[in-house]
Every structure is written in C-alpha cells, then in structure tokens.
Amino acid sequence: MNYTLHQLQVFLKVTQFQSITKAAEELHLSQPAVSIQLKNFQDQFEIPLTEVVGRKLFVTDFGKEIAESAENILNQVYAINYKTVAYKGQLTGRLKISAVSTGKYVMPYFLSDFLKQHAGIELLLDVTNKLNVIRSLEKNEVDFALVSILPDHLQFDKVDLIQNKLYLVVNRDFKFASKVHDKSIFETLPLIYREPGSGTRYAMEKFIERNNLPVQKKMELTSNEAVKQAVIAGMGCSIMPLIGIKNELSNGELQIINVKGFPIKSIWNLIWLKGKSFSPVANSFLTYLKLEKSKIIKNRFEWYEQY
User: Fold this and answer.
1) Which of 1, 95, 283, 288 has the most beta carbons within 10 angstroms of its beta carbon?
2) Which one is the CATH code of 5-86: 1.10.357.140, 1.10.10.10, 3.40.190.10, 1.10.540.10?
3) pLDDT, tens digit, for every residue of 5-58?
4) pLDDT tens, position by position, 222-242
C-alpha cells in the first residue's frame, strides 16, 4: 500500500460528512479533486470503503474502521508537528471550542488577537445548536463551550463574556400602531421558531410559558440565518438575538418591535468541566481571556451595549 497523508485526510473528511461536496468545501478543494483522491485511496483496498445508495454516500463497516485508523494517524502527525514547533519555544497545539449557532457572532472577537499572537495554535471551532454543544462538553471532546443557557446537570466553571439580548423583530414593511406594545401583540403576529435543542428557542419558549402568551407558531427553521431571511422576506416575526442582526438593523431590512418586558436577557458564558486538566494552549487562552475581556468588549461591542 502506498497511500498518502493527503488521501487519509480527504477520506476522513468524506466519512465525517458522508458527502464529497461538503468534504471539498471543508478542505477548500474542488469536488473532482476529492473524488480522485477518494478513488485512489479506495483502489488500494479490495474491500469497499464507501457505497452510494440512491445518490447518497454511506461508509461501510470496514470504511469506518479505516477512518478511525486514519484519524489516529493524522493525530500523531499533528502531534509531531506541534512538538517540532514547541521545541523552538512557541506555544502550539489545538484549541477546541464548541459554540451555539448564534455564538459565531461572539466567539471570533475573543479569539482573533490571541490566535495572532500564537501562530502555532490550531483552532477547532464547532458551531452547532445548544444540545450538541452540551453533549460535546459532557463527553470532554472540547476545551470550552460557549452557551447562553447554562446546563443544569453538569459541574462546570465559567467566565461570563457579554449579555445576550433577544428582541422581537419584523421586516421593514411592518407598520407600528404605537411606540410601545404590550404582550397582546403576539395574538396577531405569526411567530417563526428555531429548532428543538436551540438555546434561542429554549429562552423564547420559557418567556412565552412564563407570560402565558397566546402565540401563533408559523414555522420552524434550523438556523439563525434561515430565521433571519424568513423574517426579512415577510414570512413572520421572530424573537432573535440582537448580536446576529446588526447589519440588518443598520440597513433597515429588520426592525425591532418595542414590547414591554423585552429584551429577554441572559449571559454568554464560556464554560468548561469542573476539574478539567487544561492543555498549555487552553490554559493560556483562559488567562488571556480574563486579562483582555473588558478591552475586547469595549473595542468590539460598543454598538451592542447601546441597545
């Protein structure tokens, strides 16, 4: 056998996404390039690694075993690279963070300068919904998790970052009957929800339940961006995090309905398992965050604090 590290990397991504298209996007390669590397890798085995059924790609049991071995090999290669750089006196290694989907508007600003200071660090940032974020933390698969709803079944430590503010928003065509509305406005507005497992949906449903609001559930969508576009298109209104609609408020595509009791507030927290043994990279990032947090908030989120 004469497979290359590049082929292992391509095969592993294909198995993780079960999609040549998504693997190509992740690796910044063309689909034909990924297909060729996958074929060249497969040609070295007599047993199929993948199969296509109804235009959908599946990984065989044998393929799953090879993927596990490929991941182990690549991890060893990463370790060699890190040790080489570390020997030169640089901070190296992987920093693994899982963030709820709207956290993608928050976390990069707390990472940017730290990563510029330490070129030897590789960031693995998984952006998903709250359910998956907590699951990754619970399995100790990540160093940190960014959440606005704290888990009640885990022992953890935390650093609070900024406030999370949820507002009722509509598109530019909505005409206001008054400057301030009471909660009866929900009787007439079709409401767009996030999917189950979303932190935004959890906060929204708790608010609705607490205030006994008679809402009209219009539809359910699986990302903050999808909800945003549906609201802009006039398909309904939604309760959305302010952090993700800065541009749309500025250009007038969205507007906030001033409702008594809003915004719904929580805190973005970076959390980690209590008693976790940090890598030098994770420990350095936590120290950096505690020292630089206030400056980052002042420089990056001044607009946000005005609402």
Assistant:
1) 95
2) 1.10.10.10
3) 999 999 999 998 899 998 898 888 899 999 999 999 999 999 999 998 888 899
4) 888 899 999 999 999 999 999
Residue 231 and residue 271: Cα distance in Å, rounded?
A: 32
* Cis upstream peptide for 280 (omega within 30°): no
Give the DSSP per-residue string, 40-95. HHHTT-SS-SEEEETTEEEE-HHHHHHHHHHHHHHHHHHHHHHHHHHHTT---EEE
DSSP class of 186: G
Pick the CATH number of 89-162+267-305 from 1.10.357.10, 3.40.190.10, 3.90.1150.10, 3.10.270.10: 3.40.190.10
Q: How far is CA 92 from CA 77, 82, 119, in A?
A: 14, 6, 8
Nearby residues of 159 by Cβ (< 8 Å), 6 or more positions away: 269, 270, 286, 289, 290, 293
Local structure of residue 158 (DSSP, 8 states): E
Long-range contacts of 67-72 (CB under 8 A, 24+ apart): 67/11, 67/12, 67/15, 67/16, 70/8, 70/9, 70/11, 70/12, 71/12
Phi, psi (degrees; rounded to nearest 5) at 190: -70, 125
Q: Which amino acid is at 85?
A: V
Q: Rounded to an integer, what distance in angstroms lies between the CA atom of residue 133 and that of residue 238?
A: 23
Number of residues assigned to the chain: 307
DSSP β-ladder status, 93-100 and 121-128 = parallel
Compute the distance between CA of residue 298 and CA of residue 109 in angstroms, rounded to an integer.
11
Q: Tell me how far apart the alpha carbons of residues 296 and 300 are, in angstroms, rounded to a whole number.
A: 6
- The secondary structure of 13-29 as a DSSP string is HHHHHT-HHHHHHHHT-
> Chain centroid to CA 210: how far?
28
pTM of the prediction? Answer: 0.67
